[in-house]
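Ticket #4471: structure export looks truncated?
Reporter: QA, pipeline team
Priority: medium

Steps to reproduce: submit the single chain below to the structure queue and open the exported record.
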Amino acid sequence: MRKALVITAVVVLVLGLGTFGLYQLTNSRTYQLFGELVHRVETPEKVVALTLDDGPTDLAPEVLRSLADLGVPATFYLNGNDLAARPHLGRQIRAAGHELGNHSYSHQRMALVGPEFVRREVEDTDRELRAAGQDGEITFRPPFGKKLWTLPSYLAEHDRVTVMWDVEPDSGTGHDAPAMVRAALEQTRPGSIILMHVMYPGRAPSRAALPGIVTGLRQQGYRFVTVSQLLKLRK
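Actual output as written to the record:
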């Protein structure tokens, strides 16, 4: 009886550790099973990439005006279904000199999914991005940062880079724009990739934080580049 209890306890422990390990892998910003993942670039240069996730929504023109006033380039990780619904906004973002990246078509979590689902999510969005004017390499950012087996395998097979982030000012700071600014200024390092969410009405504090983040980092000596420009600095 005692031996059976010990064996049961060991099995439960192993299963628990396995589940925890899969959870950690699914959410890791710094590691995936296949292909190349970049969450920041090791460089002595004080450069940083500003990335904006989701949309485009009807708030895109407001975001573009803010970026134009700041004179800063950004990389927009957009969803294919939103692009299909508002193709003119994708073209406006591209025409303003910003870079477009792939953030899936439907913005569903892409951990426990099949190969055909992954292919459609990536390739259908690529078509919308190309139609909006994005040329050259298109990097991919998983919705919610989730990935496990199938997505990294597909991206590796097609020589695509998974772009994560190391600074996320509007996560864990509530709806406080000054707190977002402080977080960005404290956490950013040379080669950082900053993630912001600015495309929805509830994200007004994130939009309000953009000028303070850009101005503050410039005062620290940073310059802003797109993700593709940052990736060229990889050793």
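Status: closed, not a bug. The export was complete when the record was re-opened. Leaving a note from the reviewer for reference: Residues 23 and 52 are 25 Å apart (CA to CA).
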